[in-house]
Amino acid sequence: MALAPPHPEARRGALAAVGAFTVWGIIPVYWKLLVAISPVELIMHRAVWSLVFLLGVLRWQGRLGAVGAAFRSARTLGFNLATGTLLMGNWLTFIWAVNHGHILDSSLGYFLVPLFNVAAGFLFFHERLRPLQWLAIALAAGGVAWLLFRVDHVPWVALLIVATWSGYGLIRKNPPWARSTASRSKRCSTCRSPPAT
């Protein structure tokens, strides 16, 4: 069986992934510099200034109407509020962990996320894996199980990170506007910031 040709944007995508993971790997250094500031205050600043930035971008793109549409639909507003709260809970846990000496626990949580995402895809969306994918999952699960075995305490930070991030991904997988192709491109997630106010 012949392999499909690589996507024209594959190289660019791979470089973007390497860049994102590099930034993600060194960002704890940034949060460590802000150890004197409460993680809750840091998250509030992140949410509020992200909202200001995104509103500016949407205005520049002429898409501010999408924000109003999101606020007019109770279902979409509730959806964004739920996912925004999970996302903020994830970041709050991560920043607290970094600034309180639990970086390895937070890393363990992010190692667990893909395993939980695969399990969620299998259980809730009836996704099926090929034999080599099962082997990869088994190897990853074995590695994570070994890390969990070596931890001498209940890794509650890791469990919170996995619950909030996987929960966020699970809910975002099936948004209410996905059922309406006409409105799919008209929504935005800027109303994730109400939990910050």
Q: If you compute it from the alpha carbons, what radius of gyration comes out, rounded to the nearest whole angstrom?
A: 19 Å
How would the global form be characterised?
globular
* Largest sheet geometry: none
Helical segment tally? Answer: 7
Oligomer: single chain
Could you list the spans in which at least 5 consecutive residues all have pLDDT below 50? 180-192
Number of strands: 0
Amount of beta strand: under 5%
Distance between the termini: 55 Å
Summing up helix and strand content along with how strands pair, one would put the structural category as mainly alpha
User: What is the mean pLDDT?
Assistant: 83
Order of helices and strands: HHHHHHH
User: How much helicity do the residues have?
Assistant: over 70%
Question: Could you characterize what this model shows?
Answer:
This protein is mostly helical and 197 residues long. The protein is built from 7 helices and no strands. It has helices at residues 10-33, 39-61, 65-72, 74-99, 103-124, 131-150, 156-172. Helix 5 packs parallel to helix 7 (156-172). The longest helix is centred in the middle third of the chain and has 26 residues, at 74-99.
